Amino acid sequence: MSKSGKSNSVRIISGNWRGRRLQVADVPGLRPTGDRCRETLFNWLQPWIPTADCIDLFAGTGALGFEAASRGAASVMMIEKHPHALQVLRQSIDLLQATQVRLQAGGAMGQIEDLKPDSFDIAFVDPPFDSNLGSLVLERLDKSACIRRGGFVYVESPANMSIPPPEDWTIWRDQKMGEVRMQLFRRKMEQAERNPDDNGSDK
Asked: Is residue 201 part of a domain?
């Protein structure tokens, strides 16, 4: 989670639930993505959020998933393993009557392999801040092919960390904000074709 400082609530920035504040579970290391980062991210994603199917793999406070739902995402799956965080997320879903949000209990790393191909348009990856899991999660998402072509994966990590894109992906946006690095990866629209005579370069 971002090093934006701990708060007992998170504010939805825009959309149907603009200005609503949601409780943050008192869980060690749980920090919501800061307002500036979220505003920047959703400005990047603005053309694609409406009607998108999203997944928030380390839901935590739900800041990213609820923001997407507020801005018109068709569906949001939140994955979270901590029991208290799960309880608070359920309360927030009930409070907002967020029928498009589904909550899945369990660890994100163990559930990626069970995701069906072409299930989502956008994935939010904001693991525990110093866990260095971002690169591994991106690799597993690529292997599972659960992100549709032209879809996005957002990875939040420490500012000094740069994650390279897998072969089938490009870096769509890359920005540092304070102690946070924001990287938005996009899956290529077409699978790279291989020519045995071109040393493996893409056509």
From this structure: no
